[in-house]
């Protein structure tokens, strides 16, 4: 039996179980078998072939709002655990958002947009850098990582934080702006949308975000061993998918006066704060990402492209699989 078929036979049940947990009666996944067998299993083989036994292998996984980062990273994690027997830690950059209190402070000190979670500068970059350092330490010690609750738009109580007790073999670090790079100063002058044009006339917010990408975020992303990029056709599709994602979140939480789930109109405004960095990533990330997962307009993976060097290595690896 070919290794891909063998792997699919072993992991499909768990993958389908996870996919079912993400579905709603009106929103069912299509072409599940093809997504797993034709695309995500080969990507998992590629990751396993790169992983280093002596230290964690950091996989960055990026994609715009609503592209399916959680689903794709979770399935890859299931495959790596179940078939390759790897100790995998999957965590989102979203869990490292600053607290509401900290963002209120930033919004008053620098710009009101920094109250809105999302852009570089609204995460606790020092906790992330410390996390990478602890994970790579030769003398590994257990540690905790924060968990963010989007329903209340604030960091969860410490008793709900993730407990990392064993050194991971592979760390999947996913997020919409993972791997993003700063843009040139002259391009900052042109507004990406009406929100920037009306509310950031002096360029204070966009310059602040860009500086974050140029400094500590670059320091963080430079430590990634590879980058996977989930690419949609355009920003308009991302808006549609993000609205659908928020509706799903509404179904999954209990009704309470404290929840911060957004309306469709709020999502459109919210997305405008992501637009500049997202469109810059559309343009440049495919040039340096290790693997690009192209999505069609129906939210399905239509192709997977390996960059030239990795494609050459992976062809050799596939030849090895066929003849061994």
CATH superfamily: P-loop containing nucleotide triphosphate hydrolases
What is the highest CATH level, the class?
A: Alpha Beta
Fraction in beta strands: 5-15%
CATH topology: Rossmann fold
Q: Compute the CA-based radius of gyration.
A: 20 Å
Task: Note the run of SSEs as H and E.
Answer: HHEHEHHEEEEEHHHEHHEEH
Count of DSSP helices?
A: 11
Helix content: 40-55%
- Write the CATH architecture name: 3-Layer(aba) Sandwich
Structural class by sheet pairing and helices: alpha/beta
Shape: globular
Largest sheet features = 6 strands, mixed
Task: Give, in spatial order, the strands making up the sheet with the most strands.
Answer: 2-7-1-8-9-10
Give me the count of strands: 10
Mean pLDDT score: 90
Oligomer: single chain
The count of domains is 1
Low-confidence runs (pLDDT<50, min 5 residues)? none
First-to-last CA distance: 11 Å
Annotate the secondary structure layout.
Blueprint: H1 3-22, H2 32-50, E1 57-63, H3 69-82, E2 88-92, H4 100-109, H5 125-136, E3 143-145, E4 148-149, E5 154-155, E6 162-164, E7 170-175, H6 194-199, H7 204-214, H8 216-221, E8 226-231, H9 235-252, H10 264-288, E9 291-295, E10 301-306, H11 308-323
Parallel strand pairs: 1-7, 1-8, 2-7, 8-9
Antiparallel strand pairs: 3-6, 4-5, 9-10
